[in-house]
Design goal:
236 residues
Length: 236
């Protein structure tokens, strides 16, 4: 069974701890090292690595401290170049190639975001063969997946709430284009889930909800009704 712990989720920072019972990993390093230490029960030295989706600070600001603490950080070549961090702990991955990190099999894949070379990740456990897909900061997914056990997907906003906020002047209209092109909406999450094989899914985690353009209770209820699966909101 895969264990998931949210250290932070949202525009101020993103960091998730996952384990297959043998190998703990981080997804993202959007927190200072001290916060990561606290969130992992001061077990940073036990981490097999940290997977980074892209270079934006709310996903990467902890990398310099993390590599100094001896943790390998895995990312695309484009992300590494954009970050400019020099360390032998920076490990370059290529899209759609399989890698082994401890007892995990990891395959990066391309996502759609305003970053240099952003990745999502498909992870598989060695012992139980469970699969976890992680997608954040992407307007949609071009890929579908079979036999998923856990889904961690951004659900940043809904079109209805976003349009209401624009009309009310709470969100600048000029911001709408970037949001639409860079983040997963509730509507696109629904399409993504319906396109995938959910028969073996145990948990769905909704990540990176916007402070202004989301409704956690509504999102959770609608995704549960759509899928019939347990749904968790990251950060709640």
């Amino acid at each position: 069974m895969i264990e998931i712990k949210v250290l932070a989720s949202g525009s101020t920072g993103n960091c998730y701890w996952i384990s297959d019972g043998r190998t703990p990993l981080l997804l993202e390093a959007g927190l200072p090292l001290q916060k990561i230490r606290e969130g992992t029960g001061f077990q940073v030295s036990n981490l097999a690595g940290c997977l980074i989706s892209h270079e934006h600070g709310d996903h990467s600001r902890g990398i310099p401290e993390l590599v100094k603490a001896g943790v390998n950080c895995f990312m695309s070549q484009g992300t590494a170049e954009a970050l400019g961090v020099q360390s032998h702990r920076i490990k370059i991955l290529e899209a759609k190639k399989n890698y082994h990190i401890g007892t995990w099999q990891v395959m990066p894949f391309e996502v759609q975001h305003d970053a240099v070379e952003p990745f999502g990740y498909l992870l598989r456990t060695a012992k139980t063969k469970e699969k976890l897909v992680y997608i954040t900061d992407s307007s949609y997914s071009r890929y579908i997946f079979n036999g998923l056990s856990y889904i961690m997907v951004e659900c940043n906003y809904s079109m209805e709430i976003l349009n209401e906020n624009i009309q009310a002047g709470r969100v600048p209209a000029a911001q709408k284009k970037r949001i639409l092109q860079s983040h997963f909406s509730l509507e696109n999450v629904k399409d993504f889930l319906l396109a995938n094989d959910l028969s073996q899914v145990k948990e769905i985690w909704l990540l990176h909800l916007s402070d202004r353009n989301s409704d956690a209770e509504l999102f959770k209820r609608e995704i549960m009704e759509l899928t019939g699966k347990p749904v968790y909101i990251a950060g709640e």
